[in-house]
Amino acid sequence: MSKYDIHEGDVIDGFMIGKQLHTGGMAVLWNATHPDYEGELVFKVPKILEGDDPTVIVGFEMEMMILPRLTGPHVPKVFRIGDFAAIPYIAMEFIRGETLFPALERAPLPIEEVVTIARKVTTALIDIHRQKVIHHDIKPSNIIMRPSGEAVFIDFGLSRHQELPDLLEAEFNLPMGTAPYISPEQVRHFRAEPRSDLFSLGVLLYHLCTGERPFGLPRSRQGLKSRLWRDPVPPRKIRPEIPPWLQEVILRCLEVKAANRYPTASRLAFSLQNPDSVRLTTRAEKTQRDSLMTVFRRWLKVRALPPLESHSIGAPSASIVMVAVDLDEKYHYLAEALLDHTSRLLSTMSDVRLACVNVNKMSTVFMSDPFDDQGRNVHIQRLVELRDWARPIALASEKISFHVLEHMDPAEALIEFAMSNHADQILLCARGAGNYRRFLGSVSSQVVARAPCTVTVVRAPSPVGEKPPAANEMAT
Amino acid sequence: MRIAIMSDIHANREAFDACLAHAERQGFDRLAFLGDLAGYGADPQYVVDRVARFAEAGAIVLKGNHDEGAALGNGAGMNEYARRAIEWTFQTLDEDSRKFLLGLPFSIEEEERLYVHSDAAMPSDWRYINDAASAERSMRATSQRITFCGHVHIPQLYNMSAQKPAQYFEPKPNTAIPLIGQRQWLAVMGAVGQPRDKNPAAAYAILDLDKKNLTYFRVAYDMEPTAKKIHAAGLPAMLAARLFIGR
To answer: What residue in A sits closest to B168 (Cα-Cα)?
Structure first.
């Protein structure tokens, strides 16, 4: 029995209480309706048993603070919260769709399905991290897939908002995560690390791929701690058809030190979106767990670990920068200016991923010839030129990738690429001014208007003695 | 209902006007002044007059230690700079203003809120709230759910649940913080007229009763004229200099 005595048919602040949907460890969920809000709602009330430790309420207080501030398709919309003076509740959107829990029971899932789920959950994670929230309890039962396809996180009772007081900081009696999914730093009661969510996501992907839990189902505190030194069985040892790149991705998420994981959820999404760009390390080829000697050495080190340092969400240095390169020889001076600008930008960032993009414009009317007038494959030729353009930047191969997009509308192609790869910044050139582009709009102005991120437009004067190409040639 | 809460104006006309103008742009229904209208700055008469008019219109106005000192001409227990400013303010203020300051209450309770200049445990002792222990002492002394105070010139926010120590939080300006839950909150306002958190911008906050949240603000203002008036009045030069560095 909850301290808050609610029954079907009750009316609370205008919410008509319907059937009980679910009773969890911390809260009871009711179906509800309200004349002001369309459709079915969820009415969530904390479960406080008489005589319980008052700390169990803290997660609910935290959720009441955080959830109403979040927006977008990856969280339930909150309509109203109730006051503790009367009855605390969160009235929110009822999300149709299944949690990922049944998927777990079907595991191992087909690889493609795992990758699709991974992309959707990572996209949702990017969104809540951008809203300055660390979820801290990523697990199948806290993720619902909307019928429209988006992953939605529910239950923000263990979450932390970077700009709000963390009420859970003082609560050492509370379980600070869910045993199979909890990150090493959460085990150590450190709550300011957004990459904790990447670890839990890694556990989820491991389980979906292999049908097994990487760290089992520990029931004691010591059992939880063992993930600080004991590495999981490599997924490919359990299921050899898992591609090396996916093992690389999963094991990188499961790194004990947060600094060795992906720096941001966007960077993980980039790998999932572009498997070819994943640099394979020893993680990809691992077929055995680490030797007992290695594990023992790690165990010794854990005993003298330094305190953890906080890492701000979406550290700007770990950005994904997309540079759209114009390879037209007539505009060589623009490509040079863009290269100069890109190099200077990269020199201010410590950990950046650069995606070099070129659009091969397709004809709207004719079938495009894959070969140019010299018989070269256009796509490959463009890739070669793109690599050549980027050579002076001298980034490590795992930090740079090359993409030739085939599209009838170059602006559309660039915007789609920026969105699907969660680019933080786009660099591109504007060819110039002219009547033609004033009326039809240039590629750069369309990208500036519609891209979801920072866009820098680089301009450069044409060199002395060279006439800029006529305006009507600049129709791209 | 939105309440703009200002503390420690300290006779700084330019900072006060800038905060009021900012608050008007944000929208508010009521004002609360948590004490120390006077002291340190060169415009006590202007500030007291304006606040007195707000008081007639229903604003909450509390007494601070500098208000008490300025009303009585007694800077006992204060440092040299503060004492000289108190003596100057006492000479400068008219009789009515001194009476107004002396008649102000130490604290006011309204619904679940307590407004006080300093520590709620003993408001007339003017103790600072500058760490979790002093915040806890103040919160334990009241049954009100939310306390607002000033006095220390550094914006801070504390919360405390039953049987737990108080927790400190550094509020970020322009961020609405929900003051909800089964716990007490103690919101320490920064200073309008003499910030000491190394940020010279004037500080105040707006409480939104309907949304149950509090937003701290910082307002940049031109402090050159403020400093010139402090020099012209013959007040200690240090009182002008510190405005520029927020210390």
So the answer is: A165
